[in-house]
Amino acid sequence: MVLRVAALVALGVSAALLVDYVSFNPAFCSPGSGCSAVRASGYGYLFNGLVPVPALGIAGFATLFVASLAKAFQKWVFPMAGAGGAIAAGFIAMQLVVIGEICTLCVAVDSAGIVAAIAAYFHYKSKTSAELRDPFTTWAWAAAAVAAVGGPLAWPELRPQAPVPPGIRQYYVPGKINVVEFADYECPFCRALHPQLKKIVASYGDRVHFVRLNMPLPRHASAMDAAKAAVCAEAQGKGEAIADQLFEVEDLSVKNIRRVAVGLGLDAKAFDECVASEKTVERITAEGKALRDAGFQGLPTTYVGPRQIIGAQEESVFREAFEQAARGDAGLGVPSWLFIAVIALALGGIFYLGQSEPSVAAQPKPQTSKRGRDEEQDDDLHDKSRDDDDDNDDDNGDDDSDDDDGEDDSEDDDSPAVDSAAGRQRGPSAGSDDSDGSSDGDSGSSDGGSSSSDGDGSSSDGGSSSDGGSSSSD
Questions:
Q1: Distance CA 77, CA 75 (A)
Q2: What are the tens digits of pLDDT across the range 184-220?
Q3: Is the Cα dihedral 433, 435, 436, 442 positive or negative?
Q4: DSSP per residue, 264-284
Q5: Given 3-state DSSP classes, what are the helix, strand and coil percentages for the chain, each rounded to the nearest 5?
Q6: What is the C-alpha separation between 39 and 25, in angstroms, rounded?
Q7: CA-CA distance, 441 to 447, in Å (whole number)?
Q8: Which of 80, 395, 442, 467 fits 106 for a cystine, CB–CB 3.0-4.6 Å?
Q9: Rounded to the nearest 5°, which phi and psi values hold at 460?
Q10: pTM of model > 0.70
Q11: Of 85, 64, 89, nearest to 4 (Cα)?
């Protein structure tokens, strides 16, 4: 049972990790957390980022869970759990030594895998022949596993929208569809999103209030120069025009950026002075800080009304967000406490209704000691002797009545009566052999009853571990 509970915990937490590893908008790993750092380290994915580690964790723990329920596969539980525990310990060591960050959700999965391995080991070493009765039915365990995995997978669709951070809300205009984009002109995903977002914004016309803020990443060598050019072109009313060019051109060198600016009709002298000004750098730094304070997770990051969209997602995602903002829908969703309470009640109901019926074991016949059997036999003999004495008294009474007729007849009748009584008295004494035989028979029966004791076998379980996701964001 300990193994299955550990496997359920690992399945649920692995599902939560998988949600964040394949989603653009993480639902469980907060920005800047250890989980976010482990995910960004690259060790959370296998086969060049194609397979997130949590997906393997779900597959491994699900296999272990099923094996613990199916008697035909229980011999594989301990090897599987042992391998899973070793992998889990390796993941914890990797976080401490290689990555230098601790993901609490990952550690929870790995710890569950180690607990499952220990439980499987002790079950294996016990070598008991008595199978412990499972307190819950197979369907209850299966339903609990579905709830453990399904809950985290459903949460992203049910959770309420987080409020727009104050640093970003300051750019909103009441009564408009507010769109605030953070971009890096060298970021490939920002470049991919630009034409798509531009088309959607244009389709809503004046209903949209659009603001583009700069977030040049340090690893992009030309990103800061492009951001300076965008700020200075905006000062001359050519912000969108130069943005279109900067997102498209391959050469973002200082010389080529200046050539693009001049080609758009900007005042070259004013442009050069603006680019060299410290105020321009301060503005770019302040814009980036607004996103970092809100919890930077990747680029592009776009706020559409109450929603935050990370990455170059499909056009349908952005159009849905625009429609939601146009309706004024704040996207309240289900409070987290209510969601947790529903899951807890569901699990409680499953295990309450899924309790297995107690098995009625055959009760062995009570054994009686030889001394007890002898005493019972003596009591039976004494009872029978008293019955014979009563019969003799009746016979003597008949003989006395015959004495009234003559003494000779009385004397003749006395001897046979005495002999008969004596014979009847000797009967129980001779019958003691029969009693001993009966005693032996009872003893054999009692021994036979005691030999009907039973024995069962016990089973055990095991586990594996996981952590990991990818994103079309920078």
A1: 6
A2: 999 999 999 999 999 999 999 999 999 999 999 999 9
A3: positive
A4: TT--HHHHHHHHH-HHHHHHH
A5: 65, 5, 30
A6: 13
A7: 10
A8: 467
A9: -145, 170
A10: no
A11: 64
